[in-house]
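Dear colleagues,

For the upcoming journal club I promised to circulate an example of a predicted protein-ligand complex. I picked one with magnesium ion because it came up in last month's discussion. The inputs are reproduced below in full, followed by the predicted structure.
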Amino acid sequence: MKSRNAVLLVLTVLACVAIVLVNWVAPPIQKTIEYTKYSTVRLNVFDTEITLIGFAESEEAFAKNAEQAFELLENLDRIFDAYNAYDGLNNLYYLNRRAAQEPVPVPRELFELISWCKQKWDENLRSTNIAMGAVLSIWHDYRTAGIASPDEAALPPMETLQAAEAHTDFQNVVLDANKQTVFYSDPELQLDIGAVAKGYAADAASALLSKSMPSFLLSLGGNVYAGEKPLDGRSAWAVGVQDPRAKALEASISGSDILDIIDVTGLSVVTSGDYWRYYTVDGVRYHHIIDPKTLMPSTQMQSVTVVCQSSILADFLSTALFVNSYEDGLALVNSLPGVEAMWVLPDGKIEYSAGMTKFVRSLQ
Ligand code: ADP
Ligand code: MG
């Protein structure tokens, strides 16, 4: 028995020596891939500037990933376009013109976006109401006219807005999930998906990019999605929150247009602000986010920034929080797991939800 144990011991020692020798003779191949940071900008998609930054093995690999993402975004831009028709495409423009006559089959992406928003409506989240197109288009027309002829800029009459408000009930958007059709049972109802379209698009493009170039940052105007951490040693992506009251020229010279920096990975950061789109009537600025309760541009906030995983949710909530008080908004944020927010109040005071402090650089 003893001699058998001795033999086993010798064999074990020999095996170990062999393993060590093999590893010494042929060390495991450690091919280190070098990742380089690249970036590119595309204009005129979603009426904004789209920036993509990513870490890739080569410039060609980056260009290929970027092209795929931009192709997806351009396709979505056509589907979500409310102002132009495209041959053979039942886009939002087509839907708004046809859906009161008959159920209109729409592309999967448009159906998904509308269903998602209707679900929120059913959950009683109604401050962002994409069925408010009848009211929003009046503001859009007055704003466009006011920007073109500032001397004649005027506010829409309240009676006109109230008459349109009668046609903003989401219940009158009838969805058929099997047929993927949309029908408006109120002939004057119109959808305006401006509050969530970029968020949906950011989610779709980010899902695609995550497969081929996981370390990336995608920005669609105020809609940012940060992928896996940058491959240059930093632990997170830095996303600037714009100072709503920065003067454009001063800011571009001094770089002082940034209020704070939010450090994130695998999260969306979306800001709604009163400084994106507005026009001026008798010296007063009127911006583009309308409170469904007053039918007027909300005066509750200068900006609201939302951080959460889903970009469409962040986009939806940034608009919703913008038309609510800080107190009501905070209660909503606290009721939603994984959602954080930062409010810039009318007097410039900044408020944060509890979990937001772990992302905001000045609070570290
Ligand atoms: P931006 O598109 O400038 O990033 P938002 O995401 O807040 O800002 O969306 C604003 C757009 O959403 C407006 O241009 C308008 O089309 C639409 N909108 C404005 N107010 C509302 C609202 N209360 N509910 C739904 N959509 C709105
Ligand atoms: Mg929004």
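Two points we might discuss: Residues 127-130, 132, 136, 192, 194-195, 221-222, 272, 276-277, 288-290, 292, 315, 318-319, 323 surround adenosine-5'-diphosphate (ligand 1) (CB under 6 Å). The radius of gyration is 26 Å.

See you all on Thursday,
B. R.
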